[in-house]
Amino acid sequence: MRLGKLVRRFLAPAFLRTVIYAVRYHAYVSPKAEVDLSPNLHLGRGVSISSFAKIKALDGPVTIGANSAIGPGCFLSSGTAGIKIGEDAMIAASVVIVANNHVYDRIDLPIRLQGHRSIGIVIEDDVWIGANCTVLDGAWVGSGAIVTAGSVVSKKIPPRTIATGNPAKVIFRRR
Amino acid sequence: MERSQKDSFSTVESVFPVLTSLVSETLGIDEERVVPELSAETVDEWDSLNHLRLITAVEKRFDIRLSMEEVMSLASIGDLAQAVANHQSAK
Fold first, then answer.
1. Side-chain half-sphere of A155: how many Cα atoms within 13 Å?
2. Please, which residues have CB within 8 angstroms of residue A163's CB and are 6 or more apart in sequence?
3. At A23, is the secondary structure helix, strand, or coil?
4. Quick one: closest CA in B to A170, which residue?
5. Three-state DSSP class for A138?
6. DSSP 8-state class, residue A29
7. Which of A58, A106, A110, A175 is the most buried (most CB within 10 A)?
8. HEC secondary structure over A63-76
9. What is the pLDDT of residues A141-168, one digit of tens each?
């Protein structure tokens, strides 16, 4: 498994991944993006992944729906529970989406040795996540919601709302 | 009670004092600065997010729901007061 990870992460040339994802999913993955070549990654038709985005999908599923866009410099880490992004979602530049947390139940062990916990992240259809947002494990963003730039999402954002801040809170309901 | 509240907020003059404190609280500005001509162009604190915060606060306080067209077209506090009065009259 470790050898498989190494091969997929370091030995598959970037342009090859771009070609593979273009042929398999009709999706555009920039050759400058770092996207794991993994059976856990599922891209819808017309997905765009910009340069310098990094997607880690070796431990759990990452699904990105049709016509969604991942902006430059984004970082997505699936954890074991995974990340599900719906259709027509727009993830702006430098958004961090991490679907796992460190376990820190014990104080007699370094945190790095206590493993991880993963609940998973769901971002539904037609969501706009502003630049530099952070979406934490367990977050759920309802369809049509907007999260303003720089916000931190840790819980549920209801559909068709606009949320802002750290933690992100609803300030307006779209109509 | 509902009847009296409807009557009390059916004019711009009756809405404005309540609106003044809401605007002051939401935008973080002194109540003395809140005049009908106050607009996003004249107040730095009135950005797009605070505009939405203000609308949500006003809707909650006056128990009304503005349309998206109204939300986007409101250019000044006077416009907002007029919209609130119109909705209260139509209740």
1. 9
2. A145, A146, A147, A148, A151, A153, A157, A169, A170, A171
3. helix
4. B53
5. coil
6. E
7. A58
8. EECCCCEECCCCEE
9. 999 999 999 999 999 999 999 999 999 9
Look up the ipTM and state it: 0.82
Helix (H) or strand (E) holding A43: strand A41-43
Rounded CA separation A157/A174 (Å): 13
Most distant CA atoms of chain B, gap in Å: 38
Q: How many CB atoms lie within 10 A of CB A102?
A: 11
- The Cβ of residue A27 has, within 10 Å, a number of other Cβ atoms equal to 22
- Could you tell me if B49 lies within 8 Å of chain A, comparing CB atoms? yes
Burial of A3: CB neighbours in 10 Å, binned 0-12, 13-18, 19+: exposed
Q: Do residues A57 and A81 touch, judged by C-beta distance below 8 A?
A: no
Helix or strand or coil: residue B18? helix
Question: Which positions in chain A touch B53 (Cβ < 8 Å)?
Answer: 171-172
Distance CA B74, CA B55 (A): 10
Shortest distance, CA B53 to any CA of chain A (angstroms): 6
pLDDT in tens, chain B (91 residues): 444 555 578 788 889 999 999 999 999 999 999 999 999 899 999 999 999 999 999 999 999 999 999 999 999 999 999 999 999 888 7
| Among A80, A102, A76, residue whose Cα is nearest residue A89 | A76
Q: Note whether B56 contacts A172, CB cutoff 8 Å.
A: yes
Q: Is B55 on the interface with A (CB under 8 A)?
A: yes
| Cβ contacts of A42 within 8 Å, gap of 6 or more | A25, A61, A62, A63, A64
Alpha-carbon B83 to chain mean position: 8
